[in-house]
Write a structure and sequence with these properties.
The chain is of the alpha+beta class. The chain has one domain: 2-Layer Sandwich (Nucleotidyltransferase, domain 5), CATH 3.30.420. It has 4 helices and 4 strands. Helix 3 runs parallel beside helix 4. The longest helix is centred in the first third of the chain and has 24 residues.
């Protein structure tokens, strides 16, 4: 149990470091990513007003019907395209990537690449 607590504290510290750096240095809305074992979610948040401008996830009905399993790169790519199209409809073109404590690798990188291809500037 001691090892899991240590890893949890490291993740929490890393998440706070990334998010605080983004909040203090950027005036753009942030593309926040949450990744679980079975699903991946993304939302665009305006920190100045405290509102969510656009959101997408593998539990949304159109994406849920398209993919049987939402914890792979294909599902992350679809979520990236969906959140990019929703944010472009909301009038947001430039965002900063908030990857939380996750490495820029695998599903997180696939989501970011798909959002870039769909028209977002990260």
């Amino acid at each position: 149990m001691k090892h899991e607590k240590k890893i949890g504290k490291q993740r929490w510290r890393r998440r706070c470091h990334v998010r605080n750096r983004l909040k203090h240095d950027s005036t753009r809305p942030r593309l926040s990513i949450f990744r679980s074992r079975k699903h991946i979610y993304a939302q665009i948040i305006d920190d100045q007003t405290g509102r969510t401008l656009a959101a997408a996830g593998t539990t949304d009905k159109p994406l849920r019907e398209e993919f049987r399993y939402g914890g792979n790169k294909d599902a992350a790519t679809a979520v990236g395209k969906a959140v990019a199209s929703a944010s472009l409809q909301a009038g947001v073109k430039q965002v900063t990537l908030d990857r939380r404590e996750y490495k820029y690798h695998g599903r997180v990188a696939a989501l970011a690449a798909a959002a870039r291809e769909a028209g977002l500037e990260l």
